[in-house]
Amino acid sequence: MADPKLTHIDSSGAAHMVDVSDKAVTARIAIAEGTVTMRPETLDLIVSGNAKKGDVIATARIAGIMAAKKTHELIPLCHPLALSKVTIDIDVDKNLPGLRVTATTKVSGQTGVEMEALTACSVACLTVYDMAKAVDRGMVIGAIRLLEKAGGKSGHWTIAEGTQGGT
Questions:
Q1: Hey, which residues does 154 pair with through a beta bridge?
Q2: Catalytic residues
Q3: Spatial contact of 83 and 105, defined as CB atoms under 8 Å apart
Q4: 8 A C-beta contact, residue 124 and residue 108
Q5: Binning pLDDT at 50, 70 and 90, where does residue 1 land?
Q6: pLDDT tens digit string along 5-53?
Q7: Each residue of 45-83: b (16+ CB within 10 Å) or e?
Q8: Which pLDDT does position 96 carry in this prediction?
Q9: Closest Cα to residue 146, out of 137, 138, 157, 130?
Q10: N or C: which end of the chain has fewer CB within 10 A?
């Protein structure tokens, strides 16, 4: 980017919602990831399904999906989107120890779904914390980041490649 600019700031420095009306409708996807690190005993309790509040993983999955759909209500300058798909994958990672949360969002539209994926991932992680905090207040939510986005004028980007190119 030769002359990077913040898209949500107008020429006078005021925040504004970006006008996407002239953008082409394209298939767009975003994938975000985050982790919840915890004591091994807490992870065992979650995996066994014996947490006091219920099924932690299923509840976090639903919370993440709901959050993606409400992103525009949480992030002031986001456009409301008719998401076509939201998936939340929650995998046990004994090396953390903890859970690795991956959110994938899809839409056919005029703007990207990165914020929806990041919001879904964040809320799923927060839900894990909420449901297990009675046994482990020292859990750490971290490494929330965009892994990949595709579609639109800026094309395809992945964190692994750190590159952009048309798709």
A1: none
A2: 130
A3: yes
A4: no
A5: very low
A6: 767 667 777 776 776 777 888 999 999 999 999 999 999 999 998 888 8
A7: bbeeeebeeeebbebbbebbbebbbebbeeeeebeebeb
A8: 97
A9: 157
A10: N
The encoded tokens of residue 154 equal: 């800026």
DSSP code string of the chain: --S---TTB-TTS-B-----TTSPPEEEEEEEEEEEE--HHHHHHHHHT--TTS-HHHHHHHHHHHHHHTHHHHSTTPPP---SEEEEEEEEETTTTEEEEEEEEEEEESS--HHHHHHHHHHHHHHHHHHHTTT-TT-EEEEEEEEEEE-STT-EEETTTTEEE--
**pTM of the prediction?**
0.88
> Does residue 68 surpass a pLDDT of 80?
yes
Residue with tokens 């600019």: 5
The separation between CA 43 and the C-alpha centre of its own chain, rounded to angstroms, equals 22
In the numeric block, which tokens belong to residue 132?
Answer: 């297990």
